[in-house]
Amino acid sequence: MPTATVLVVNAGSSSLKVRVLGPDDEVLASCDAAAGHEAEVIAGFLDGAPEPDAAGHRVVHGGADLTTAVRLDAAVERRLDGLVELAPLHNPPALRGIRALHELRPHLPAVACFDTAFHSTLPAEAFTYAVPADWSERWPLRRFGFHGLSHAYASRRAAELLRRPPEGLRLVTAHLGAGASLAAVAQGRSVDTTMGFTPLEGLAMATRSGSVDPGLLLWVQRHAGIDPATAERALDREAGLSALSGRSGDMRELLAGVDERDERCTLALAVYLHKLAAGVAAMVAAMGGLDALVFTGGVGENAPRVREAAVERLRFLGLEVTGRTNTAKEPADRVVSPAGSPAAVVVVAAREDLAIAREVRAVLER
User: Which of 115, 192, 236, 353 is labelled catalytic?
Assistant: First the structure.
C-alpha cells in the first residue's frame, strides 16, 4: 500500500498528537491534546478526519525482541503489556491509544513503531552494561536507547539539508524536549546514544534526573527507607530541571528565571548545558569525528539561547552558529552555522509522524 493514507497516534507521557497523513505525507488533519483521555480524543478526531487506510502508533519501548515496526495483534499487545515497567511514563498511554483505536476501528490495519528500534544497531560495546553475569543471563539488561523515531528522521532530514548522503555523515542528533537524548548516527545507523535500559539514563530533563550514581540511589533508599516504586517516581517525575530550579521543568520558564537572576534557575541551566556538552562530546568520540550537530525537539527547535550556549561549549569541535540564522524562526529546517565551518549546526523540526507513516507503509508492503 505505497500511497496509503496513515493515521498517526503519538501518545506521550504528557501529550497526545494525532495526525492523518495523505499519500504524499501532507497533513490532512491534526489534533494535539493532553495525555490521559486517549479514547475520547481519538473518537472525536476520527469523526471529522479523512478515513485512513492504516494506523501507526508510537511505542517508546519495544524491549529486546521488538526491534522493527510490527503489525499489531493480541500477541503483540501482550508483549507490550510486559514492557510497561521499563517505560512507566510512556508505554501505558501508548497502549491506551492502541486499544481505543481498536475499539473504534477494529478492522483498520495498525502498526506499532518503536522508539527503541533505531538503536538496535548499537554495537555490543555501546549497549552492554558491566553488571554481574548472572543478572545479564537472567534478564535482558542492556542499553536500548529511545527517541529513535525522532533521531532517525532528524538524521535523514539533516543529510538532505547538507546535500550529502547519510552514508557519508557522522551526526550527533540532539532531541531536546521534556525528555532529552543524544544519538551518534554514523552512516545512517545509530552507534551510541545517551538513554539506556529505560528513558531515565543520560541528560538532565524536565522532570527526569538523567544519569546519577547508582550508589547515590542505594544510599538514599537505605537512609530514607523508600521502596523502588517511590524512588522511580521521584527520579521520573520529581527531579530534573523542575527540582533544580524549584520553578518548572519548562525551558521557557527556566530562561525567564535566569533573566531574573534567579540563582536556582541559573544553576539548573548550567547543569543542563554541562551534561549536554559532555554528552555531545561522548557521541563524537563514539564515531571518531563529527560532520554536524543536529538540534530537534521542542527545546532544540525553539530555544536559540540553548543552542548558542551549547555550541559555545563545543567550539573545540569546530562548531559555531551565526546569530541571525540561529535566532530566525523560518525556515523551520535550516543550517545555522557559517558556510565552511569544520562541522555544521543544523535545526530540524521534529516530525515523528513522518517517520511513523514511513514505517507503517513499509510494514504494509511486506
Answer: 115
Q: Domain extents for the chain?
A: 6-144, 164-347
Give the Cα separation of 365 and 363 in Å (integer). Answer: 5
Quick one: 10 exposed, middle or buried, by C-beta within 10 A (0-12, 13-18, 19+)?
buried
pLDDT digits (tens, 9 = 90+) for 124-180: 999 999 999 999 999 989 999 999 999 999 999 999 999 999 999 999 999 999 999
Catalytic residue list contains 47: no
- Asked whether residue 36 carries a pLDDT value surpassing 70, the answer given is yes
Q: Is the peptide bond before 165 cis (omega within 30 degrees of 0)?
A: no
Condensed to tens digits (0 to 9), the pLDDT of residues 320-339 reads 999 899 999 999 999 999 99
- Mapped onto helix, strand or coil, the DSSP state of residue 268 is helix
Q: What is the DSSP letter of 293?
A: E
Cα end-to-end span (Å), the chain:
9
**142 DSSP assignment:** B
Residue 1 has pLDDT above 50, yes or no: no
Two domains, one topology: 6-144 and 164-347: yes
Give the percent of the chain with pLDDT over 70: 99
d(CA 271, CA 250): 15
Q: Tell me the one-letter amino acid at 293.
A: L
* φ/ψ (deg, to 5) at 203: -70, 160
Task: Give the model's pLDDT for residue 15.
Answer: 82
CATH topology of domain 164-347: Nucleotidyltransferase; domain 5 (3.30.420)
pLDDT given for residue 49 in this prediction: 95
The CATH number for 6-144, chosen from 3.10.180.10, 3.10.150.10, 3.30.420.40, 3.30.230.10, is 3.30.420.40
Rounded Cα gap, residues 83 and 109, in angstroms: 22
Residue 152's identity, in one-letter code, is A
Beta strands (DSSP E) in the chain are 6-11, 15-21, 27-34, 54-59, 70-71, 110-114, 170-176, 180-186, 189-193, 292-296, 334-335, 344-347
